[in-house]
Amino acid sequence: MTRPEVLRRRLARLEEYLGILRRLSAYSLEEFLASPERYGAAERFLQLSIKAINDMAAHVAAEEGWGPFERARDLVDLFLAQGLLEEDLAERWRRIIGFRNLLVHDYLEVDRKLVHRFLREGLQDLEALARIFARFL
After folding, report:
1. pLDDT at 107
2. What are the φ and ψ backbone dihedral angles of 123, each rounded to 5 degrees?
3. What's the rounded Cα separation, in Å, for the pair 133 and 137?
4. What is the 3-state secondary structure (H, E, C) of the chain?
5. What pTM did the predictor assign?
6. CA-CA-CA-CA torsion for 87, 90, 94, 99, nearest 10 degrees?
7. Domain 4-134 sits in CATH 1.20.120.580
8. Of the candidates 75, 57, 44, which has an alpha carbon nearest to the alpha carbon of residue 11?
9. CB 99 within 8 A of CB 66
10. How far apart are CA 22 and CA 40, in angstroms?
């Protein structure tokens, strides 16, 4: 059975991260790119936000006994099979996982313009995923 306290802690932390990211999204592309502190913070808090999403997904899937998973992408399929997300959000979640992998593993190649675009266009997807986990409280 999913433990609400586990989700509560991660959702609270995710909301904290999203607040920081929302503030960073207010900067123009030029202001954003001109400040290593801004893009560095954005990259780190995006990474932490996506990790929180994936950790909550792993917790729910394991505790609910939905079947095995080895990678974060497997979790998307489990949530889709449970009817908890629509295919379009599932596809965006897969892209978010890929973006996190880029931030973590290919950090020398990160296009900071893409980071800025994610701040402007992608935070609502993280918020939508957070709402799915809030259903388990």
Report:
1. 86
2. -65, -30
3. 8
4. CCCHHHHHHHHHHHHHHHHHHHHHHCCCHHHHHCCHHHHHHHHHHHHHHHHHHHHHHHHHHHHHCCCCCCCHHHHHHHHHHCCCCCHHHHHHHHHHHHHHHHHHHCHHHCCHHHHHHHHHHCHHHHHHHHHHHHCCC
5. 0.96
6. 120
7. yes
8. 57
9. no
10. 15
Collect all residues with Cβ–Cβ distance below 8 Å to 25 and sequence separation of at least 6: 116, 119, 120, 123
Single-letter code of the amino acid located at 64: E
Residue in the structure block whose two tokens are 């809030």? 134
Q: pLDDT tens across 71-118, in order?
A: 999 999 999 999 999 999 999 999 999 999 999 999 899 999 999 999
Return the amino acid letter for 85: L
- 25: which 2 tokens? 């999204």
At 89, list the tokens.
């959000």
Where do the domains of the chain lie? 4-134
The tokens describing 98, both together, are 């890929």
